[in-house]
UniProtKB/TrEMBL annotation:
<dbReference type="InterPro" id="IPR036249">
    <property type="entry name" value="Thioredoxin-like_sf"/>
</dbReference>
<dbReference type="InterPro" id="IPR022551">
    <property type="entry name" value="BrxC"/>
</dbReference>
<dbReference type="Pfam" id="PF11009">
    <property type="entry name" value="BrxC"/>
</dbReference>
<protein>
    <submittedName>
        <fullName>Bacillithiol system redox-active protein YtxJ</fullName>
    </submittedName>
</protein>
Length: 110
C-alpha cells in the first residue's frame, strides 16, 4: 500500500521508524511520472515486505528539495529511492522505474 507524505517532519519520522523503505518523488503533471507511479503501484500491491511512500513534487517541493540535499542525489521526477538505515542505497528515475527494477533492488538489498 502506498502512503503519501507531505512534510519534512513526516520524512524524518520515517527515517527514525523504518529500517528500510521506498520513496517515490512523483510529478502530478508528467506522463513519464504517471507511468512510473503505475509501476510503483504494481510493486506496492504485490507481495512485498518493504513500506512504500511517495510525495507529489508540486505539493511538497520543500520536502522534495530536502530529500535531494540529504542524500546528495540530484532531484529528478519521477525518482525512486530505496532508503536503508537513513541512507539512500539505490535510486532510479524516469523509465528506469519499473516493477522489475524495484523488485530487483529489493532482492539485492535485503
Amino acid at each position: 500500500m502506498l502512503k503519501k507524505i507531505d512534510t519534512l517532519d513526516q520524512f524524518e519520522d520515517l527515517i527514525k521508524q523504518e529500517d528500510k523503505f521506498f520513496l517515490l518523488k512523483h510529478s502530478l503533471t508528467c506522463p513519464i511520472s504517471h507511468a512510473a507511479y503505475q509501476e510503483y503501484e504494481k510493486y506496492a500491491g504485490g507481495d512485498v515486505s518493504l513500506p512504500t511512500y511517495y510525495l507529489a513534487v508540486q505539493e511538497a517541493r520543500p520536502l522534495s528539495n530536502q530529500v535531494a540535499e540529504k542524500f546528495e542525489i540530484k532531484h529528478e521526477s519521477p525518482q525512486a529511492l530505496l532508503i536503508k538505515n537513513g541512507e539512500a542505497i539505490w535510486n532510479a528515475s524516469h523509465w528506469k522505474i519499473t516493477t522489475k527494477s524495484l523488485t530487483t533492488a529489493t532482492n539485492e538489498n535485503l
